Each structure stands twice: as C-alpha cells, then as structure tokens.
Amino acid sequence: MRRRRSLLSTALVTTVVAAMAVPASAAAPLAGCSGTNDGDYTISDNATVESPITISDCSSAPSATATVPVKIVHTYIGDLQVSLVAPDGSAYVLHNRSGGSSDNIDQTYTVDLSGETSNGTWKLRVNDNAANDTGRIDSWTLNLGGNNPADDFSVAASPTSGSVVAGSAASTTVQTQTTTGQAQTVQLSATGLPSGATASFSPSSVTTGSSSTLTISTATSISSGTYPITVRAAGTATRTATYTLTVTGGTGPQIPDIDVAAVKQHLAQFGTIASQNGGNRRSTTAGYRASVAYVKDKLSAAGFTVTEQACTSGCTSGAGPNVIAEWPGGDSNNVYMFGAHLDGVSAGPGINDNGSGSASLLETALVLARTNPSMLNKVRFGWWTDEEQGLNGSRFYVSQLSSTERAKIKTYHNFDMVGSVNGGYFINNISSSQSVHMKAYWDSLGLQPEENTEGRNRSDDASFTNAGIPASGYAMGASARKTAAQASKWGGTSGGAFDPCYHSSCDTTANISDTHLNRAVDGIAYTLWKSAVGSGTPGADFSVSVSPASGSVAAGSSLTASVATQTVSGSAQTVQLSASGLPSGATASFSPSSVTTGSGSTLTISTTASVAAGTYPVTITAAGSSTRTASYSLTVTGTGGGSCSGTNPNDVSIPDAGSAVDSDVVISGCAATPSASSVVTVRIVHPYIGDLTVALIAPDGSSYTLHNRSGGSADNIDRTYTADVSSETANGTWKLRVRDLAASDVGTIDTWGVNLAP
Q1: Are 731 and 757 in contact (CB under 8 A)?
Q2: Which residues are CB-contacts of 89 (< 8 A; sequence separation ≥ 6)?
Q3: How is residue 510 annotated by DSSP?
C-alpha cells in the first residue's frame, strides 16, 4: 500500500526543553491520560519503525500543550524524521532531519493535540532516510495534558450473586464511589440478562458516593441456569461490576454447559488420526477420510440422520465428502445450520485450523442428542471438505440446494479456528440480526467482541452469504497480529499472531487455548438453543448399545453379545429389538425380544455351515417412541478355519491415481500367535497391476508389503502371499491396503483373506 502524505505534517511543534529537563514523572499528568514505552526498537538504515503507547480511560480531550519526551540513540540525527502519530492516523512532525551529524535525540516536545481523541493507540514513528548509521528508540512518553486528577469513580454490587425461582425477583445494592476528582452523576444499566428477565434500578441515576437498588424480575418461561449480569455505570467514563444470577425452576429451554474436556477428546482423536495418516488431514488424504468416519460414526450412534455428500464438481481431485447431519424434530421450513470445515492443510495435523471448530460442533451435536429437548426449529450440521483449497465443499453444498431449500435456511453459523492460543473474540457480521445470540453470550462474559475483518470471505460462511443465505460465526484469529488495544482488553501478547502455528506443523493439540475453546463452544450451544429449541419438556427417549461391539464365529456355530438400553429423557418405555445386515444363512434372536428401557437382552447370532466367510456390519435396532440403533461387526470364518482366519468378500473400488483404499478383516478369539508363514490370499481386478502397491496392515498399524508395482501391464492379481507377522498380536482389525499410483486404469478389491495359523 502506498504511503500517504500527512495533511498535518506542518503542525505546530515547539521544542521545550533539551536533555529531558522535565522528566515524565515531573509533569504530573492527568490520571489515565499518559503513558510510557521504554522498550527498545531498532532503527535500521533507510527504514521506518514505530513504538506504540495505548491510552485508555482518559476522560478529557488532549491539551493544546501536550508534551512528548523522546530519547533516541543514533549517531547521525540529521538522517531522522520523528513524528507522533495519533490514533486516527494523523501525524505530527517532532524532528525533521535537523541536527546534522550530532549524536542522539534527548528532548521534550510540546504538541497541540486539541483536535484529537485521547483514547487509542498513539505511535512514535521514526524514519531513517540515509545509509551508514543505525540506532534505536530508547524510550518515549506521551502526556496528553493537565495537572489535576480526572473525575473518576468505581461501582460494585453487594451481594455479588443471588438465586431466584423462575417467576420471582432478586435484588442487590449497587454502590458507587468517587475515586478521583469531583463527584458526578452516573446512569445505571444492566446487560447479559437472559430472555425472560428484566432489570430496574431505584434510582436509575446516582451521584457517585450514593447507591441504588437493582431488582431483576424473571418470568416463569425463563430458562434455568446461571447468568453473569454486567452492571454498568456511565459518567465521564464507564465502569462495570458483575452480578451472578442463578435461576431455578424455569420452564424455558435448559441451555447446557458444554464440557470442554469432551471437546478436547475429539481434538486428541483428530491428532491421532493425523499421526497415523502421514501427519495431516488434507481433504484428499486418508487422514481426512478417517476424520469423516470418526465424525459420522459418533453422530449416527447418537441418532442423527447422517449423509456423506461427495463433492462431484469444483473440489480438488480426490477430495473426500462433506458430512451433513440433521436432528429430528422442529419446523423443517425454519432451518438453523451450524458448520465448520473438517479438512486441514498438508503442513500439519490442523488441530486449531480447524479441528477446533469441527470438535466443538461435534460435541454440541452429541449434547443435543443426549438432552433431546423439544425442538422448535430444525437444526442441521455440516462438516465441509476442501475448505483450505478454496471453500470448495461448502460452495458445492450450497450449489446443490434448490431456491426453496436455500430459503428454508434462516441462518448459517460458521466456526473456524476457535481455540487460538493468543486469540481474540471475533464475530462475522457482528452487527447483524443473525449474530444477536452469539454476541449476547460473549457480551454476558464482558468479552467486548469485534468484527472478524481478518476472516472476511476466507471461510465457509462466504459460500452461504454469496448465495443470499444470512451467515455469522465465531473465530479467534489466524496469522493477523494482536494490537496493543486488543491485548489490553483480552490479554495475550501484543504484536503476536493470534495463532502462531497457523498452517504449520506445530498446529497440534498443544496449540489450543482451553479458555477460548470453552467460551466458543458454550456460545455455540447458547446460539443453538436460543435459535431452535422449544420451551416444552424433553420427550421420552432412550439409547441402545451392544457389548462387545464385534465378534467372530466359525460357520455353523453361534455367538452372543449383550444389548443394553438406557432411558435418556422422560419416562422408561418398552422397545422392540431386531437385527439387520445379517449374511445369508445367519439368524439373530433376542432374549427377551422386547425390554423396558434401562434393561438388557442377550443377542444370539446363529450361522449355518453355508454362510460365506467375511465380515458383516450388523445393525441392532430398538424401536419405541423413536428408533435408536447400535452397530455390531460380525466376522464369519470358514468351517474348520478356526477364529485365526477371516475373509472379506465385499468389493472395494480402487480410484485411479488416487489415495489408498482399505478392506478390513476382524480377527477375534484367536488364541494362537501369528505364524511366520501366515497366508494372505488376494483377488484384485485391475487391467494394469504395475500401477498398484498392496500391503497387509496389522492391527497396530505395521505394514507388510505384498505387491509393489510389479507385473507391468498384466491383468489382475490372483495369488496367495506368505507374510511373517509373528511379532504381531492376532486379534484386531487387519487391513488390505491398495493404492493406484498411475493414471488411466481403475479396478476393484474383489476378495481377500488372512490365515494367521495355517
């Protein structure tokens, strides 16, 4: 950006005293209207450097005789131009290349700043305009003027907390005190009140030194919970106090407090997935597909309707799918959508960017399922692919919506990088109606959020706004640097990047601020409940699970597992149990076949000798007022083959010049140690086997190469390999991993099997 010449470069500046004859401490500046920066700033040849001072809580306008003591160490001050830069960018020249070859500047300047605003970041800007001499800004002070203390005050609430039954009122005494200067009149107000609560002050304005009674009245429809209320007193400055209100017995939706530890467990899993798949979760990698599987499995088990949406146009070749999850209930014509991109960059595991947003959404969705509130509006979640390559996954999703379906989405909320270690509190479109709940929650914590200017049009919310769908979202900041003013109100390191590991290998689970993450996920839950949850009581609901979650049986035999049910909300109910997905020749029975939630049943799966060997995903269904499912993995081995072998006959497509694909065989109940001459039978249909690598992957992730691009243009692999897996543990999931490394040919894993004790 081209530098703009200041219109005030000729402003009146008078040198008052040389050699710091009046030190900063002797000027007795107006309280809150002065500051010093004694940090050293190097002045390089032919360069510009700035040293900042942030002024806050200065209650008067700057003086026409403001003073600026400056100490600069330099061997040729005739090279230097020194200016004071006001918060609005106006520049006041203090020294303009005078002094020739003299050493150092050690002077106090007087400046007419009466046309400026006091509060904000002021800067001492030094330009070195010639070569051969360097130096440093040693220290400087800004005194905006005055010798008398400002009128200032404090405010406090006593007691600082209280509890009220919904429909009743609580009160506290608000006390003010004059701390400096003269007493003044201040106006009292309260923010952060929950819906269904009102505040009144008696009186509503007081002279500092006096008190007022704050009364908070609640309706019966209020949500039970604990709310931090900010009490504000506004005079020459604004001072605040916090009163914590606890409401019990409310009939409104009960907004949960999301456990940040649970969110971090999801982040740890994303980290593990990355480490097991080349160190990243880029959209085209196995790490991304494993992330999709993790999210999808959690949501499906919780009762969501989950869809994998392949991105068939506009995405990077080989990119994995979007994950779309919808919760039952609510008005389908009023959809509130919550989304985050699931992919990362190739440089690292992508834990803050954007495991943080993905994990926060996942845990919020799971809590919604567990609490199962009465829904007013429809809630839909989206985890997007290929965001890092150009917002491609979300753009594809929106492009597939009809105009009618687009109109049903009332707001899309986006969450991208919500755990930055040096983070700020940013909201997309902060002043819009779709941001009201998000801002209200952060306002209740006194966070003073700002507009997300760094992230504008850089995340998936842009795909929605560009299609005419209102959008908002939380972010904590990426590579932009935190200003002194932001560090003053939010803490953290001034001048440091919000995320110092942005798009880097160090974006691991260590690159997360628990405080920022917690405030984000609780704000997500607050926004969801306020947008879509009704005020009715939770419906009767339940969960179902199976233990163990997998088992192996020789064809002609049977095995059992325990099915457990739990009442999640409402009253216990009777549910009917059934199983689907069984192979031909297998049957399932339950004892008993119907249970009251909270009770269990024994599942028995019986097989005939004719059942084909392989691994089968079996779905256990419990049907009551709603339907809930659990998954059981059944492995059938050939007659006499024992439990140390298994086969997977299911076809798996091998993409052209794409990522590796896996086919699984689960070994369970094998008492033998794997043999040094274990047998792996492989049948792959492919017209050019010289393109392929084929490996056996043990349960611990160890890889054993079976075929490495040999065979040239020959068709198909149909052979038996011997593998020394004697150092492995037998039981667990074994995988056949196949990758096509060249273009123009595709194929299929037709069938394969492993025998660990031949």
Answers
A1: no
A2: none
A3: T
Distance CA 214, CA 222 (A): 19
Q: How far apart are CA 736 and CA 652, in angstroms?
A: 10
Distance, in Å, from the CA atom of 97 to the CA atom of 94, rounded to the nearest integer, reads: 10
Are the CB atoms for 174 and 201 separated by under 8 Å? Answer: yes
**Tell me, what's the pLDDT at 568?**
63
730's tokens: 């037998």
pLDDT digits (tens, 9 = 90+) for 83-137: 999 999 999 999 999 988 888 999 999 999 988 988 999 999 999 998 888 899 9
Identity of the amino acid at 61: A
Residue 658 reports pLDDT greater than 70 = yes
454: which 2 tokens? 């760094």
Distance CA 617, CA 694 (A): 24
Question: Band of the pLDDT at 570, cuts 50, 70, 90?
Answer: low
Active site residue 387: yes
For residue 491, the model assigns a pLDDT of 93
Token pair belonging to 540: 């009767």
**Is residue 28 over pLDDT 70?**
no
Strands (E), 484-626: 541-547, 550-554, 558-569, 574-580, 586-591, 594-596, 600-607, 614-623
- Burial profile 47-67: b = 16 or more Cβ within 10 angstroms, e = fewer: eebebbbbbbebbbbbbeebb
CA dist 614 and 376 (Å) reads 45
The 10 Å Cβ neighbour count of residue 435 is 23
How far apart are the C-alpha atoms of 690 and 707, rounded to whole Å? 9
Give the N- to C-terminal CA distance of the chain in Å, as an integer.
73
Handedness of CA 381, 386, 391, 393 (dihedral sign): negative
3-state SS of 182-243?
CCCEEEEEEECCCCCEEEEEECCEEEECEEEEEEEEECCCCCCEEEEEEEEEECCCEEEEEE
322, 327, 331, 336: CA torsion to nearest 10: -50
Contacts of 600 (CB under 8 A, 6+ apart): 562, 563, 564, 565
Pairing of strands 627-637, 550-554: parallel
- Rounded CA-CA distance 53/50 in Å is 10
Are 492 and 423 spatial neighbours (Cβ–Cβ below 8 Å)?
yes
Task: Give the up-direction half-sphere exposure of residue 212: CA atoms within 13 A in the CB hemisphere.
Answer: 26
At 33-46, the pLDDT tens digits run: 888 898 889 999 88
Residues 560-590 as b or e (16 or more Cβ within 10 Å = b): ebebbbebbeeebbebebebeebbeebebeb
Report whether 111 contacts 66 (CB < 8 A): yes
Task: Choose, from 116, 326, 387, 728, the residue flagged as catalytic.
Answer: 387
Answer whether 344's CB lies under 8 Å from 685's CB. Answer: no
Instruction: Please tell me the pTM assigned to this model.
Output: 0.51
The Cα–Cα gap between 575 and 572 comes to 10
